[in-house]
Amino acid sequence: MKVETRQAPFVQVGSIQLLLWATLFLNVFDVFATLYWLQQGLATEANPLMDWLYQKSPALFVLGKMGMASSGLAILNRYRDRRTALGGAFFVFAVYYKIALIHCHGISLFLL
Q1: How far apart are CA 82 and CA 38, in angstroms?
Q2: Which of 51, 66, 69, 70 is most buried (most C-beta within 10 Å)?
């Protein structure tokens, strides 16, 4: 039995993919900004799993952080024609955007 899925009529595939690429870019920025703060001793990792990976190896931290985000974005991309995927993409983008703003604020304080 095939389950019918409803497509969101207002979703353009290109727009959600652009949002996902932008989120991936923000994730890369977050990974390397966080790594810098951690290595300088200016911050601690709030996520216990990421903190554990960082304590094991900074390379594991990078792989774990990038891997988890990329996996989630790949799932959203796979179901990009569904309304819930668009909502998820907007939510994840908003979270990473907020994290990027926090990093930028920290950088501005560090430079002043």
Answers
A1: 38
A2: 69
Using CA atoms in the order 82, 98, 31, 70, what is the torsion angle rounded to 10 degrees?
Answer: 0
Q: Tens digit of pLDDT for each residue in 69-89?
A: 999 999 999 999 888 999 999
Among the listed residues 60, 91, 59, 61, the one whose alpha carbon sits nearest the alpha carbon of residue 73: 91
**pTM metric for this prediction:** 0.83
Q: Which secondary structure element, helix H or strand E, spans residue 24, and what is its range?
A: helix 13-40
For residue 109, the 8-state DSSP code is H
**Residues near 19 by beta carbon (within 8 Å), at least 6 away in sequence:** 89, 90, 93
Q: Where are the domains of the chain?
A: 26-111
